[in-house]
């Protein structure tokens, strides 16, 4: 199975700020390294430079040579803009010549357009976000909304999937979006295995909060990890906040506060996300009936399962399975 080509735009090739290398490295890592044991055909990958340089060059930056030019994004199945120069965002300087028309041509020819962090400014400048919901790093969303009033900017989410156009917040949210693309293209099993190799969470829903008051748990909150692992092994059981708190030797109120501080979500929402993740994996990897998957994932009856799945994922379990049919029948328990 071929999942097509991915073209990543490098908007600065000389004096690339060290900060911007993080977003650039994400799609290179996810799409640029073949994974033959996970999929018969991996992505055809290309780095496409604009030939732009910073003046003066950033003394802490890097130089990046790309084998392809900006016109080579046209014809790619997926085009990713990891970032744009800070001078464009902060000072209103023009984008590299040829970038905006190339983005428009790629979109007109059917490419899936993706931005990470402030790369959303390039898609917005090309008019590809007009009338669409989009996001960027929360530090830039106010500027994005002010400069492009036709864009519905959401500063609270990790990423936004509008089908043919997708945008993400900065840094690790870009990794979440890239793994989301792999999940869309190749299914939950492949995305989960790839995430495991990268030692990152397999799936964070795009609607999860972008900014968490205490994103790094306190040292003693490392004790939450065994509790969460224990819960993941018992998702088919009727777990409550009290059950989890008791397992963690905490009061329900303290457990609630610490989990929310560490993950940005409530215990019940965390359980729902985990159950939906298991349900998606079972839909993709088994031929079990919906009733059985609802029970195994802890989502209850078939009707309750369908209700939560449709509300959170946007399609019914049956439609999801048709989109991601199991490669082979597998048993579970």
Question: What does this 3D model show about the protein?
Answer:
The structure is a single chain. With 333 residues, the protein is α/β, with parallel strands linked by helices. It has 2 domains: 5-198, Rossmann fold (3-Layer(aba) Sandwich); 214-333, Orthogonal Bundle (Arc Repressor Mutant, subunit A). The protein has 14 helices and 9 strands. The chain has helices at 18-31, 86-91, 99-108, 120-125, 141-147, 172-186, 188-198, 224-232, 241-247, 252-263, 267-285, 290-296, 302-313, 317-323; strands at 5-10, 44-49, 68-69, 78-81, 112-115, 133-134, 152-153, 159-161, 165-168. Strand 1 (5-10), helix 1 and strand 2 (44-49) form a beta-alpha-beta unit. The chain starts with a strand and ends in a 10-residue tail after the last helix. Residues 211-221 have low confidence and may be disordered. Keywords: DNA-binding, Transcription, Transcription regulation.
Detail the topology: elements first, then pairings.
Layout: E1 5-10, H1 18-31, E2 44-49, E3 68-69, E4 78-81, H2 86-91, H3 99-108, E5 112-115, H4 120-125, E6 133-134, H5 141-147, E7 152-153, E8 159-161, E9 165-168, H6 172-186, H7 188-198, H8 224-232, H9 241-247, H10 252-263, H11 267-285, H12 290-296, H13 302-313, H14 317-323
Parallel strand pairs: 1-2, 1-4, 2-3, 4-5, 5-9, 6-7
Antiparallel strand pairs: 8-9
Helix pairs in contact: 1-6, 6-7, 9-10, 11-12, 12-13
């Amino acid at each position: 199975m071929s999942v097509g080509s991915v073209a990543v735009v490098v908007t600065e090739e000389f004096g690339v700020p060290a900060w911007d290398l993080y977003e650039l490295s994400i799609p290179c890592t996810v799409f640029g390294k073949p994974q033959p044991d996970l999929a018969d055909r991996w992505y055809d990958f290309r780095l496409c430079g604009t030939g732009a340089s910073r003046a003066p060059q950033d003394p802490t930056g890097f130089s990046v040579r790309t084998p392809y030019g900006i016109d080579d994004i046209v014809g790619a199945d997926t085009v990713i803009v990891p970032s744009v120069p800070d001078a464009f965002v902060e000072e209103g300087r023009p984008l590299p010549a040829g970038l905006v028309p190339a983005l428009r041509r790629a979109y007109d020819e059917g490419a899936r357009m993706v931005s990470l962090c402030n790369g959303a400014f390039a898609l917005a400048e090309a008019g590809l976000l007009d009338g669409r919901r989009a996001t960027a790093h929360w530090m830039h969303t106010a500027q994005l909304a002010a400069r492009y009033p036709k864009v519905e900017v959401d500063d609270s989410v990790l990423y936004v999937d509008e089908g043919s156009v997708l945008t993400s917040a900065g840094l690790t949210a870009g990794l979440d979006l890239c793994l989301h693309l792999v999940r869309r293209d190749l299914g939950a099993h492949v995305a989960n295995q790839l995430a495991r190799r990268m030692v990152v969470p397999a799936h964070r829903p795009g609607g999860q909060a972008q900014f968490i008051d205490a994103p790094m748990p306190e040292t003693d909150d490392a004790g939450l990890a065994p509790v969460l692992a224990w819960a993941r092994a018992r998702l088919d059981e009727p777990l409550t906040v009290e059950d989890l708190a008791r397992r963690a030797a905490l009061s329900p109120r303290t457990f609630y506060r610490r989990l929310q501080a560490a993950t940005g979500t409530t215990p019940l929402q965390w359980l729902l996300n985990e159950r939906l993740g298991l349900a998606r994996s079972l839909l993709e990897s088994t031929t079990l009936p919906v009733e059985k998957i609802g029970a195994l994932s802890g989502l209850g009856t078939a009707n309750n399962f369908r209700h939560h799945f449709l509300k959170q994922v946007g399609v019914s379990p049956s439609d999801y399975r048709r989109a991601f049919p199991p490669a082979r029948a597998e048993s579970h328990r």
